[in-house]
């Protein structure tokens, strides 16, 4: 199973929204130029900058003609109800009307979680969703699984991000440790590429398709934005494990394709 992992496009409308939309469009064009092409794309949250219906209409315009399956996750900038209104019942949400869902492919399972807590920057899954995840993973133990969510479940050493990480990361770890076929946990939120061991597997955080955050590890320094390259991650999940590649977008000589 080959999964292109994008994150944090922060789409918005108006004159200030062009750069974010162009960033996502460029990243998707770079995905199409890969050979072989991925089985699917997952975007791990902060799809919209303010969670407004017009922003999700813009997202649908950007991804509407994209020829590969695209699966969407919520982030703290998103609005769950507006997202479901725009994409519920479509393949973009696994064909259902929930913001957490699974997509079963012959060679693997993609699980998308909903860590959005309305009105908060940090995330939480909750007991009900964790029980659902446990059952989904138990149903297909013979194929690799990639679990996707917005908020990293552990500290990554960037204090501003660690303060608003997933609140029930230890509870998620308890579930994942019961399922050794989970070969990757894919997250966003940090606007930087991060890799860490977690719950018997590997956590990879994708950079933003729009803009990156500073690597601020000192509590006396304020986090900010930097003009670093945009990129996405490419996860190749097999029965033997998972290999992740970083694919540059804004600063690359690699070709892109239109759609």
Please explain how this structure is put together.
The structure is a single chain. With 259 residues, the chain is α/β, with parallel strands linked by helices. The chain is 23% helix and 25% strand. The chain has one domain: Purple Acid Phosphatase, chain A, domain 2, CATH 3.60.21. The mean pLDDT is 95.
Widest beta sheet: strand line-up: 4-5-6-7-9-8
* Order of SSEs: EHEHEHEEHEHHEEEEEEE
CATH architecture: 4-Layer Sandwich
* Overall residue-averaged pLDDT value: 95
- Total domain count: 1
Count of helical regions: 6
The overall strand count is 13
Assembly state: single chain
Output the CATH homologous superfamily: Metallo-dependent phosphatases
Radius of gyration: 17 Å
Top CATH class: Alpha Beta
Beta fraction of the residues? Answer: 15-25%
Please state the structural category.
alpha/beta
What helical percentage do the residues reach? 10-25%
Shape: globular
Characterize the main sheet.
6 strands, mixed
Q: Could you list the spans in which at least 5 consecutive residues all have pLDDT below 50?
A: none
**What is the distance, rounded to the nearest whole angstrom, between the alpha carbons of the first and last residues?**
23 Å
Under CATH, the topology can be stated as: Purple Acid Phosphatase, chain A, domain 2
